Amino acid sequence: MHRIAAALMILAAPGAFAYTAAELAAKNVAAKGGIDKLNAIQSLRLSGKVLVNGGTLEVGYTSLVERPSAIRYEVQLQGLTRVQAYDGSEAWQINPFQGRKDPEKLSADDAKALGEDAADFTGPLVDYQAKGYRLDYLGTQDIDGTEAHKLRVTRANGDVTYVYLDPDYFLEIRTVNRRIEHGVPNETITDYGDYEQVNGVYVPFAMESYQKGSNDRQKLQIAKAEVNVTPDKSLFKFPAARPAAVPAR
Question: Of 215 and 76, which is predicted with more confidence?
Answer without folding.
Answer: 76
